TrEMBL record:
It comes from the Bacteria. Residues 1-21 form the signal peptide. InterPro entries: UPF0319. Keywords: Signal. It comes from Photobacterium profundum 3TCK. PANTHER family: UPF0319 PROTEIN YCCT. The keyword Lipid metabolism does not apply. The keyword Ribosomal protein does not apply. Belongs to the UPF0319 family. Transmembrane segments: none annotated. This is UPF0319 protein P3TCK_15190. The lineage of its organism: Bacteria, Pseudomonadati, Pseudomonadota, Gammaproteobacteria, Vibrionales. HAMAP family: UPF0319.
Amino acid sequence: MKMKSLGVAILLALGSGQAAADTVLTLQPEINPIVVNGGKVGNGIFSPEQQVDIQKGENQILITVGQIVFEDAKRRKYNSPSYILKFNANDQPLSLTYDKMRTIQEAKAFEKSPSFVFTDVNGKNINYKIDVLNASGMQSFRDYQQELQAYNQGQEGRAAVTIASYTAIAPQSVTPNPAAKMTFLHNTFSNLSADEQQQFMQWAMKNLK
């Protein structure tokens, strides 16, 4: 069922986009935006976007970090937990960065004390609050929007916001083309872990037309 949901999500995501907002947040390439102010970003963790729309005032963004690190002299893909960041913006563009890790030990240390840097166009640091969105299961198949909504409704987390404090960016309908579909599917598959690729292949073989 999880793989079926993934397939449906892929098809739906190909026909969605985002509307413009007050300003933009530029992210370091290794930072993957998932949800911004209640709205899903692009196709979630499968198609990272390096610029996302944000609004003046309070904002909330859900992200993960994915990069190559070394473990026992071998390269491996590290995927972080999901982090919720709450911050305020004016009408100036912002950027979000972090210090890249070289080893799995540095990645584990980052998990214990995650640190990001928000800066404006003048290089001034922007304060933010951070929390971890904990959940069991593989990140690829999580309903992040629903989890984040439940987190906010609890109003107990450090990075929680009231639903009324933001307006989710509404999706716009676009007509997908075959080339875009194949590019997206290729990118999706390459971003899965080895176990997830195996599960996806098993699901795909069972659902061939």
